[in-house]
Amino acid sequence: MDTDTDGLERTLTGQPLAEAVRTKEITMSTRPVIHISNVKKVYTMGTNKVFALRGVDLTVSAGEMIAVMGSSGSGKSTLMNILGCLDVPTEGSYELDGTRVDGLNRNQLADLRNQKLGFVFQGFNLLSRTSALDNVELPLLYDRSGRKLDTRALATESLRRVGLGDRLDHQPSELSGGQQQRVAIARALVTQPTLLLADEPTGNLDSHMTVEVMALFQELNDQGITVLLVTHEPEVAQYAKRIVEVRDGRILRDHPVIDRRSAADDLATLNAAGPDADIAVLEEAA
């Protein structure tokens, strides 16, 4: 957020902060971020039909942090693609923050992704010869709403938010794996999305960096950002508030996390144990 010359606090889009907060509170209290009903996805391959999703119902409220789990071929990636407006269901309905998604054309889906969603990927997907600041600013250049007034300031603030305010000019090759994922998270946050979608965000990280990134996700969630992540790691899922298990194109179980772990506490334990400590230290501490 920024402060204008009259001392009136405003968001970086120019909207008065108090108004933005009231609007967000009203929105959060009246509708879910995600609501899908009887969603099916069928792929036709020659004369064969592959049923990737077989009637999925899911509701995600604002402020939740959900881990979607499932083995290869379970349908979790197809579900993530549909939730991310990268694909459309064959049958069923999908509402994203009050907007009906099924039936939208390609351009409408692209606009919705830019305005409502932030993506974090396993492979970071950063431009290799581009600074952290330019990487984070990139999604704003595709924004056709005209709401983002100062893209450079927004990108700088987003990097500061993930603890990289002193790495603005660094290229990915000059950053650690954990720092690169933080840049990717900053890029996902810069459009001020309704929902943060993370697909195996710790898959390329070691134990220490995994906990570091999950601490950031928990911190962002504590600030009110809705997070949905796909993971095959039970240890990572324990940092979420809710686990959705997918099997054979259906939701097998949907349950709250019992004994949820604090990534910040786990990170402190790892740091205290020294630079060579691994996840076994956390198991011993538990």
How would you describe the overall organization of this protein?
By secondary structure, this protein is α/β, with parallel strands linked by helices. It has two domains: 1-28, no CATH class; 31-285, 3-Layer(aba) Sandwich (Rossmann fold). Helices cover 35% and strands 24% of the residues. The chain has helices spanning 17-30, 76-83, 106-116, 132-137, 151-161, 177-189, 207-222, 234-237, 263-273, 280-285, and strands at 2-3, 9-10, 34-45, 48-60, 65-69, 91-96, 99-100, 117-121, 195-199, 226-230, 242-247, 250-256. Helix 7 (207-222) links the parallel strand 9 (195-199) and strand 10. Mean pLDDT is 87; it is low at 1-14.
Keywords:
286 residues; four-stranded antiparallel beta sheet; 10 helices; 2 domains; 12 strands; alpha/beta; Rossmann fold; six-stranded mixed beta sheet; globular; single chain
Under CATH, the homologous superfamily of the largest domain reads P-loop containing nucleotide triphosphate hydrolases
Report how far apart the termini are: 39 Å
Q: Main beta sheet, described?
A: 6 strands, mixed
Strand fraction equals 15-25%
Helix content: 25-40%
SS-derived structural category = alpha/beta
Q: Please tally the helical runs, counting DSSP H or I stretches of 4 or more residues.
A: 10
Number of strands: 12
C-alpha-based Rg, rounded: 19 Å
Q: Element order, helices and strands? A: EEHEEEHEEHEHHHEHEHEEHH
The outline comes out as globular
Please give the CATH architecture of the largest domain.
3-Layer(aba) Sandwich
CATH topology of the largest domain: Rossmann fold
